[in-house]
Amino acid sequence: MEKGSRSSSPSPNQPPISREQALLESFFHTLSQFAFDKAKDQVEKEKEAKRLPLVSSTPWSLLMVALSHLALAEKMYFSLPFIAKKFLRKDSVRDSFKSLTTELKRIEETVHTTAAFGSPVEGSLMAELCRHLCQFVQARQELINFYEAMATMSSSSNVNCADFSNMIDEICRRHNKGFHHPILDSIKSSFSYEVDILSNLLKAQCDMAEWKFLPSLLHLHESHVKLSSWCHVFPSGELGASLTLKKSLFGSTSKKHVEAPFLYQWLGKLQDAVVSKFTLYFYRILGRQTTSADMKSLTARASVDYVGRIAAFIRRSDAFNVCMVLDTRQLDPYQGHGYHLPQDIKEPPSGLGAFPAIFSFPGERPVDHWPNIVSILLDKVQELNSPDKPVYLFDNRVQSTYFLTRVDPRTTLVVIFQSKRSEKDSYVTTFLHETATLLRNTKTFAMLKQGGKN
């Protein structure tokens, strides 16, 4: 039998539990399955069955009211309306969690004074449960702040994923040992899935920015496993039946409509976006493991087919080359493409070699143009660090045009033409802006502002 749904008729090896404790376990298990309305109905029926008034001095009746409010707050939380409506009206989600803290503390304070009147649940258990639920509500409020910060940064061209990674890790650290009451196991697991997925995806982003192949791959794999495991908590025949996940990390996205809450769907979209970025940053490494036809098929199945996008741009614009340049200075250790054993120590590259091409299409990096590209990177640092518009240069000597835009702190996207092109060429500048925005994942962060339907 699933966790949180123990029968009140226990096995010989299981201590007996009351009907009320079984109700609590069932409520939190149902809540963890995103069945918010069903969970709310469970406590509403309990109030009706016991003929509990809306306002009562007994801890049990107060707890039923608080749990009903919790189910509603969780439903709103997973649809993220607090971001879209933040500046439009009163923040009902945040206020709901704040009110819950007050309610739960009130129950904890009154539980001992009313114990003599015969509570259906042992007073110490209810007080402990309320204390742990207050910790859970605090964690929710911190995650609300996190998602709001991420949505706000979506309008910036300089997103520092390390800041977000540190923020979510701090939330993990602070609440790792919190709300661990056995009755809350289900929502503790749900919370852990959410923050672990976020932590791994943000770490993968940070590792890619430093061009670390194996760490970013391991974080992507871990986030994929967590997403898949979280999916399996849904009840079969209900929500779970409408969910079909990718079997592998690089598999195609399901075509079925996913009826999971908006937040769960958004985490899946973030996973897809980071995987797509991975296929571009480590295209050459991945290509060594298979045929060019299989690589084309692999990238085509990604949520963003960067290689296909670049190839189409080159055909339509008559560009000579599109490449991604990495600044390896102070990058320790830098060992080149692929995975390297820890004991493989190499001399750090210098000169032009300190700026390798991590991606080049078509073919290898254009060696003749590399001195010009590195010169621009060194001379136009300030302009590249403010990537509102691409850096432009036409070299009359070689009759070539260069467009550059910074994607990550160490990575620059470069387009080369072997002819003179206008600085205001809208097709080129639009391609650079859109590609850089996708690679920074600010478009995915901006999806948070849309929220889900209540």
In short:
With 454 residues, the chain is α+β, with helices and mostly antiparallel strands.
What features would you describe in this structure?
Helix content is 54%, strand content 7%. The chain is an alpha+beta fold and 454 residues long. The protein has a five-stranded antiparallel beta sheet, sandwiched between helices. Strand 3 (391-395) and strand 4 form a beta hairpin. Residues 1-10, 237-244 and 252-258 have low confidence and may be disordered.
Record keyword descriptors for this entry:
7% strand; 54% helix; alpha+beta; five-stranded antiparallel beta sheet; disordered N terminus; elongated; single chain; 454 residues; 17 helices
Write the layout of secondary structure elements.
Blueprint lengths: L18 H14 L3 H14 L9 H21 L1 H4 L7 H19 L12 H31 L7 H15 L9 H25 L3 H19 L30 H20 L1 H5 L4 H9 L5 H12 L3 E6 L30 E5 L8 H10 L1 H5 L5 E5 L4 E9 L2 E7 L8 H15 L1 H5 L8
